[in-house]
Amino acid sequence: MNDTPAALMAALTQDPAQPAEAYLQLVRELYQAQRHAEGERWADAGLLRHPETFGLWNMQGVFLRMRQRRPEALAAFDRAIALNPLELGPRVNRGNVLLDMGDGAGAAAAFAELVAEAPDNPVLHHHLGRALDLAGQPDRAAEAFRRALAIRPEQAETWLQFARQVNARRGGAAAEAVLNEGLSANPDNHALLEARGLVLRASGERARTLAFIEDLAQRFPDVAWIHLHLGDMVAADDRARGLTHLRRAVALAPDNRDCVVALIQVLERGRGPEEVRELDEAYGLARRAMALGWSNPAHAKVFGDSFGRVCDFEALEALGDFKALGRAWSGAGIHVALLRHMARATSPGDRVELLEQHRIWGRAVEARAGAEPLGRAPRGPRTKIRLGVMSSDLRKHVVTHFAQPIFDHLDRNRFELYAYSFFRGDEDAVQARIASQVTEFRWRPDSTVRGAAQVIADDSLDMLVELGGSTHMNKLEVMAYRPAPVQASWLGYPHSSGLSTIDRLVCDPFNAPTDPSLLIERPLMLPRSWISLGPAFSNEPAIAEASAQDRYGVVTFGTANSPYKYTADGLRTWARIVAAVPGARFAFIRPEAASPTFRRNVLAAFAAEGVAADRVVFHPVRGAHLPVYNEVDITLDTFPLTGGTTTVESLWMGAPVVSLVGEAFFERLSYSILSNAGLGDLCAHDLAAYVETAVGLAGDRERRRDLRATMRSRLRESPLGQTEAFARDFYDAIAGAVEAG
């Protein structure tokens, strides 16, 4: 503690009848020490002795403002002004309180009066600009900022405020121009340099942004925020380099929340030999950050990713309740967080709320798109439907496992097919194959969202189908610009995206929600299955001749689903099923299975239901996981967010899947797959039936042997395996949607 305030407080306590200047000295010291509550109390004490002291009223107003007691602060400043009407300080402070309260008109009147009295004061012009902007007078605000900068061009905060105002009104390019002016006057000002970097990043012009940040890293090698932005930008393409810069950022600024959170995010996304070590490191950093209260929507998303991967459900719940957290994410534009949020939607009210969270995101994106409309190419005569598909996953990727049949069986008599990808990696054999099958393949890795939308609009499509949702390198926001007259979603995201500009959602009679109000779009119904199995599903890997039960003498349940789909209730239910089958085991086929934290949390959940640790098996594997299904007799599906690809893979490897069916689309993906495979009886409609079905199947060894021996042929003969028929159904549905308009 600073000795000066302590000595002053002791003196005033011993002799309160000291002059006003003693109290003023103390409260100023307390303000400098940011001890606002104490400052308020001592200002009160001073005013009891010296009620006509202008300086004490002004300081009391400052403390009340710091403590967000704004009406009381206004009253204190009014009293100070009454005592000394010519002094600028309390009048400026009063104007700032009006700004805090959102009273732009009141603040503008206050600062206009002050500017008239002190026209050469740049700070007053700055505050007037802020007030006019808040009052909805952007042109007058810009004039005020310009006057402030004409007086003091080195005033960086005014350049920043002016750039913010211009960005909100006229967009990033205009804001960048303002910042460039500011940098001409202040070439090495780090606040202006960082603001320009942020505007560039928001523009989506990756190459130009990266060149700018890399140049800064050369000029200023010991500045944390430069390493933060550089590491964050390059980590997706060069993870080792990204981590180097982020670790440097944290070393330079260990208490900078953004630096620490960015490092957590990249560590959590690790792949390869260091994945588990980095996952546990990310988890430890996230727990520390949470303990320090570092939580805004973006941080909560990163923390939640780390907590979810190691099944720390208590920490997940501490991030916030379902409504508050989801709305924070959607309001902040973090659409990708809503995918993992689906696992927490367990009630009818949650389903409705989840839909509204997507709408909140969608309304904001559509508003931005509406402010910069696309140019529209004239539509010439044509005899074929021009269909576009948009996805950065048109390569070796699970989306293409199911999308490939529409390329292999393109109905060339009726359709021209255009494909759009923003993938930043190298072309692989799958992408090259698709590019050779479609009419046009537009590969634009460096496109901005609006630029990508304009490219699509220039092709004058009849319909556009997006396949990626908000997953990595996809540009879902393109759909907000409506580059095609009819738009749909398929495959990549198991929920309405939130955009009213997406008209249809491809589904089938099984996964379509029971309540149509649980979708924003109209269903684009395929008659049998919404997916079929592409050439990635071949005879490899082989199904082992002996089942897991044949080899180990007990039934082995298991899952290869990602932990972001796990819930505390789900783990508890799996454990109860294992406990109900004598000697049964449960196998986790996941890279996280090597994490000590993941194992500890999972084993605790199973132990709580009486399942010993030796009955839980961990198979740490990524990528080459299909052969490990030979270690599983029955897969238990996640709920409420069910499996999709994993359900197909489990069946392909001869392991039947038991699933719990809910009302929303994301709760019915496995229901569609199992029903189309002729296994609808393995789909339960309540939790008790889910447990009963799993336990019953464990006791029906003959049925499981038959399924194991015949599953691949069943799948090939089912709607899932009839790829040509599926493509015909798909193109018929597209033609119907185009005709309906």
What is the second-level CATH architecture of the domain at 343-532 and 722-741? 3-Layer(aba) Sandwich
Report, as a whole number of angstroms, the end-to-end distance.
Answer: 72 Å
Query: What's the average pLDDT?
Result: 95
Structural class of the helix and strand makeup? alpha/beta
User: How many strands?
Assistant: 13
Kindly state the percentage of residues in helix.
Answer: 55-70%
Radius of gyration, whole Å: 31 Å
Characterization of this structure:
With 741 residues, the protein is α/β, with parallel strands linked by helices. Among the domains are: 204-320, Serine Threonine Protein Phosphatase 5, Tetratricopeptide repeat; 343-532 and 722-741, Rossmann fold (3-Layer(aba) Sandwich); 548-721, Glycogen Phosphorylase B (Rossmann fold, 3-Layer(aba) Sandwich), CATH 3.40.50. 56% of the residues lie in helices and 7% in strands. It has 33 helices and 13 strands. The strands form two sheets. A seven-stranded parallel β-sheet has the order 3-2-1-4-5-6-7, covered by helices on one side. Strands 10-9-8-11-12-13 form a six-stranded parallel β-sheet, with helices on both faces. Strand 8, helix 27 and strand 9 form a beta-alpha-beta unit. Helix 5 packs antiparallel against helix 6 (88-100) and helix 16 (257-268) packs antiparallel against helix 17 (275-291). The longest helix has 23 residues, at 348-370. The N and C termini lie far apart (72 Å). The mean pLDDT is 95.
